[in-house]
Structure formats: structure tokens, C-alpha cells
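G., the chain you wanted modeled:
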Amino acid sequence: MQTAGKVFVVTGAGNGIGREVALELVAQGAIVAAVDINEDGLRQTADVAGTRRISTHVLDISDDDAVAAFPQTVIDAHGAVDGLFNIAGIAQDCESTSDITSGRIDALMGVNFHGTVAMTRAFLPHLAARPEGGRIMLTSSMSALVPVPGAAVYGASKAAVAYFGYGLAQDLRRQSPSVKATTVIPGTIWTDIVRNTAQTMGVPVAAAKTFAMPARKAAKKMIAATMKGRTSLVIGKDAHFYRGLTRISSRLAERVSYVQVGTFVYRQNSASGASGADSTP
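Predicted structure as C-alpha cells:
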């Protein structure tokens, strides 16, 4: 599928990878319905795009009723819809399973997994009705390949997205073969979330930025794979490393992840606990 002249919905378009995907689609001649819960972020994305080929829509993708009504909003604005890029997501702070609150668990699953599923189901009938078919992209994470210390629930939400995407692609082969679903597993991509995480972990920002893939480069790869109708895509040096290591030994991959991240996460949590104990009368 060519991007020029087509209409694509991009969630999470107010910043990070979502913004870069929206901008790159516009640069390739597409029409974009940019979606985010952050109105200011959407306004900034539209300002950067500098074209009428982008519309902005404030939407909470964890709101089932709002999501169900949204496809008609896009069709009213642009006349049709040819593809959906599911990028919106929220991160888990570096916290253990015993520390994370029930409310945060619900939010992570509600946005990352249930929101992605709801958006996909809402737009699927419209994509299937398009003469040239449609495209759906789902954004998982490297944490779906290997467990990351301090991010058990986030990893669970993104693993759920990955397997939903793979299963969706299977269903579409029989039910709507003209619609293709692409599941993307990105490693470390340079975004505000990664910058904040690096600062929290005490990693020099310059070093973290050098290691991470630029968001614009990631956006181009994600769009290209989706337009080609690929079932899956892994991007980022660390994601490729862990995928290869997991194929050799899942136990070794888990240990490397623990050494790389867990040493800091658990030491930090222990230090916080000790500090709290010392300050108690």
C-alpha cells in the first residue's frame, strides 16, 4: 500500500514515536488523524506538520464508549480511513510487583492493552470495507521478549499486545485478507520516556541517547513494514540482541536483563526503604 493520499489514524501522536509517525506519514503525502489524550502535545504536532492534512483529536483510548464512536468522527473529517497506527501507551515506573498500586496496574492494562484492542476492533470493519484493504500497526515492546526488572506489569501489557497482534494477523488471513496487521517490537527508542528513565537510573543522558535509536528513524521503519503488510518487526540494537539471546537461552537472557537493569532497580528500592526506616521516629 502507498501512503500518499491515504487516511491514517495515529494514537499517541502528541509526543515521542507517535508524533514522529504522524509527521512522517504527512511527509509521505498521507492524511493523518492525530490522536492523544494530551491536547497541548497534539497542537505542537500539528504546528510542526504545518499542513491541513492533519487533524487533531483528544481521546482517551481506555474509554470504550469514546473509542466506539471515534471511527465516525474520522470518517466525518476525512471521508474514509485506510489504516490505524496503535502507538499510545504509558510506562511503568521502576517499581516491583509488590510496590505498584492496583490503580496503576489497571491504567497500564487499560491503555496499553485494552485501549489497543478497542481501537483495533472499532476500526476493523471500516478498514475491511476499503477497496484496497487496510493496515493496522500494533506497538509492543522489547519487554515482551525478555522480562525487565521493575516493569512486570508493563511487560505483561506489551506481551499481551504482541500476542493479540499475532493472533489478529491469523484471523485476518481468513476473514479479511486485504487487511494486514503488523506487530512492532521496539527496543530503546529516544523519547521523553527514555530520557526520564535514564535520568531516574542515573545514566548519563548523552550516553543513553547515543545507545537509543532516533524516534524519526524508528517511525520510518514502522511505517515501511506496515505498508508492506509484514506480520512483525523488531527494531533497535538491544531488541535484536535480546531476541537472538532468547533463542539461544531464555535463562541467559533473563540473567543479562537482571544484571543490566535489576541491579539498579532493586538497589534503588532498598535504598529508599532504608531511608524511610531511618527517618521514622
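DSSP finds ten helices and nine strands in the chain.

Shout if anything looks off.
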